[in-house]
Amino acid sequence: MGSIPFYAKRFVSGSNFEEAFSVVEKLNDKKICVTLDVLGENIKDKPQALKFVEEYDLLLKRIAEKPRDCYVSIKLTMLGLDIDHEFCYENLSRILSIADEKKIRVALDMEGTDYTERTIAMYERAAKEFTSPEIVLQAYLLRTEEDINRIIAANGKIRLCKGAYKEPQEKALQKMPLIVENYKKLIQKLLLNGKRVCIASHDDEIIEFCINFIENNNIPKDRYEFQMLYGMREKTWSRIREKGHNMTIYVPYGEDWQAYYTRRLAERKENVFFVLKNLFRS
Fold first, then answer.
1. Options 68, 105, 159, 233, the catalytic residue
2. Is 159 a catalytic residue?
3. Is the keyword Flavoprotein assigned to this protein (predicted)?
């Protein structure tokens, strides 16, 4: 596919890990952590899945060569979840083995609700064998409060986001004010009981709520971090970091940039509003 077109470069750091590492170093210089995501999902054949396993193998080793404030995020459908459960787990185990050895965190990204239960089950299994895995849950799903109990019982390492996929009303809250209120409810439980909590939000109301809750409850700084997407609200990243809070930026790279870029803009109508609004906010 070649290089990333100019209109996508705001959100995608590059087509290869050399370009991504350039972004990592610039953010690290600002005392900001990075989670790198190799773009790709819904892989249907084993050779292609194994190619992505090799990519993460190389990525983890490169991160460890020159210690960086950086970890990785992975979608399980990239590793073959659509092909075979055990094949996917073998691939995940290979990545987590290297991550444990190198002491690098690995976040299992959450996809649509067709994958929610399978992703959580695989995470629970992996958490019994490895120390590196974390998982992402989505605040708009009706099942998430109960899922949080499962994560806390496993290893308590979790990223909470609002949710980016279009889901039916029997599975997910549809109105943004209700999603925000549910996020606040869930994040309180996580901050008090989770082992490592990633507050993934660009919403000012949520950010301020969390900062106040953290300060009022003396939550230790090594128990949480704020997270935002690459290309969104850079001045806000800096302000949060300057206040003394841990800040991580989700930085995607890879040739399969179109699916990510399209979903950011088109999966839900709320995403279009979200992107347009945040392009003009600092």
1. 159
2. yes
3. yes
